[in-house]
Design a protein that fits this description.
There is one protein chain. By secondary structure, this protein is of the alpha/beta class. It is built from 5 helices and 3 strands; from the N terminus they run αβααβαβα. A 3-stranded parallel beta sheet has the order 1-2-3. The protein is globular and about 40 Å long.
Length: 102
C-alpha cells in the first residue's frame, strides 16, 4: 500500500485488501531526524506492519543517517535519492544487477 498514513490509505484497507507491503510516505521520512512526532509515526507504522506480518518500504530516503535510523527501527526496504536518481529501465536493471549493498 503506497503512501501509507496519507490520503486515502486507511487502516480499514489493511483488512480489506491482500497487502504484503506498506510504503511509508516520504513526508514522514524526511522529518524523522528533526521531528519527534514524525519519528513516532514511522515507528508506529513499522510496528503495526510487523504485527500484521507485512514488510515496510520507506519512501524518500535521502541520507545515510535516515537509512541507518530506518534500519534500526526494522524497516526492510527503502527507496529514494540516497540510492539513485530516477532511472530508466536499462539503468535500473544495471543497478539491480550490480548487487550493491547499502
Amino acid at each position: 500500500m503506497d503512501d501509507f498514513g496519507t490520503g486515502y490509505s486507511s487502516l480499514s484497507y489493511l483488512q480489506r485488501f491482500a497487502v504484503d507491503y506498506l510504503k511509508i510516505d516520504r513526508s514522514f521520512i524526511c522529518r524523522i531526524e528533526t521531528d519527534d512526532k514524525s519519528l513516532e509515526i514511522v515507528k508506529t507504522i513499522i510496528n503495526l506492519a510487523h504485527q500484521l506480518d507485512r514488510r515496510v518500504i520507506a519512501e524518500g530516503v535521502e541520507t545515510a543517517s535516515q537509512l541507518k535510523r530506518l534500519r534500526t527501527l526494522g524497516c526492510e526496504y527503502g527507496q529514494g535519492y540516497h540510492f539513485a536518481q530516477p532511472l530508466d529501465e536499462a539503468a535500473a536493471g544495471a543497478l539491480i544487477k550490480s548487487y550493491r549493498k547499502w
